[in-house]
Amino acid sequence: MEQIEPERMKVFVTGETGQVVKALIKLADQDRLDVYTAGRPWLDLSELTDDTKCEHLSSMIEDISPDVIVNAAAYTNVDKAQEEGDMAAAVNASGAGAVAMVARKLGLPIIQISTDYVFDGSKSAEIFDEDNPEYSDYDAEDIADIKANVDDGTYKEGDLTNPKSVYGQTKLEGEKLVAYVNPCHVILRTSWVYSETGNNFLKTMLRVGAEREEVGVVDDQFGAPTHADAIAAGIVQIVKNLVESPENEELYGVFHMTCRGTTSWHGFAEAIFKASSLAGGPNPKLNAITTEEYPLPAPRPVNSRLNCEKIARVHNVRLPAWEDLIMKTVVKVLG
C-alpha cells in the first residue's frame, strides 16, 4: 500500500536573527515544517502603528497562508530598555498587539514569546510544618495530600505579575494586548535563553573567560537556563496541536516553558566552564558574588523559576534538563 505523506505545516515567524527563529529554521526539514521569516528592515514591529505597514504585513502573510504565526521579534536589551522605554514598548507591546491583530483578521492563531521578567521574583517556597497542631487529627492520606500541594515557590501561570524592569513591563503589556485582540493565542513565558547564536550568557562567559583569570558571577538569582533549540522543539509540538485541534480551547492561553531544573547564574557559569575545560576552552577561577556587588541598570527577579506542569499536561511539552545541552553548545561556540 502506498504511504501518504503527511501534510507540511506552515509557520510565519517575526524576526530573522533571533535565537529562537534560527532554531526553528533548523528544525524545519525534520518536522514537516515550512518556516517563513520576516525581520528588520522589512518588518519592524515598532512601525506597525502605521496602517499601511500593517496592510502590507497582512497581505504577505495571506499570500503565504500559514497555519500559525509566531511572534518571536522583540526588544531584548534589558538594561538599555530602562533608557529606551518608548522603543521597547513600541516593539514588545504595541508591535506585538499589531501582529496579533493581523493574525486575528486572517483567522490565525498566534504564539507570543514572553519572559520570566513579568514577575518580580519575590515568591518563596512554602514550608510544611509537621508539628502544626491543625494537623493533629489528620490521617496519613490527608497529610500526604497536604504535602503534595505545598507550593514549591515556582511561578504558575495565574500568579500575580509585577515586573521590576521596563523590559518586563513592556513584555507584560504585549501579553495583555495579544490576549485582548486575538482569543486564539498561546503566550509562552520562558527564561535565560541561550544558544550558539546571538548574544547570550553562555557566549559572554566564554568570551570573558578567555580574557580573564577570574570571573565573578551572581549567585543569588535563580532560574532555568533554556536552550533555543528546546524552545523551538516545544513550539513545533504546540503548532502540531493547534493544527490538529484548532477548536480545542484548552490549547490556548498562557503557558510556562523552560528546561527542567533550577540553578543560579553562578551555577550556570560553572556548567559552562566545566564543559569548556573538557573541550579545551577557557576555565577561569569562578567567584560567587551577590546582586548588590554587580549592580545593573535594570533590576532582575531573584526567583525566575517557572512551573511548567500546565504545558506538559495540555500540550505534552517537556523540555530536557537545563544541563543536557550545555556541552554541545559550548563545543559549537568554541568552534
Automatic annotation (TrEMBL):
It comes from the Bacteria. The keyword Secreted does not apply. It catalyses: dTDP-beta-L-rhamnose + NADP(+) = dTDP-4-dehydro-beta-L-rhamnose + NADPH + H(+). Transmembrane segments: none annotated. Its EC number is 1.1.1.133. Pathway: Carbohydrate biosynthesis; dTDP-L-rhamnose biosynthesis. Residues 9-330 form the RmlD-like substrate binding domain. It holds the Pfam family RmlD_sub_bind. Signal peptide: none annotated. Gene3D superfamilies: NAD(P)-binding Rossmann-like Domain, UDP-galactose 4-epimerase, domain 1. SUPFAM superfamilies: NAD(P)-binding Rossmann-fold domains (SSF51735). It is an enzyme of class 1 (oxidoreductase). Catalyzes the reduction of dTDP-6-deoxy-L-lyxo-4-hexulose to yield dTDP-L-rhamnose. Belongs to the dTDP-4-dehydrorhamnose reductase family. This is dTDP-4-dehydrorhamnose reductase. It comes from Hirschia litorea.
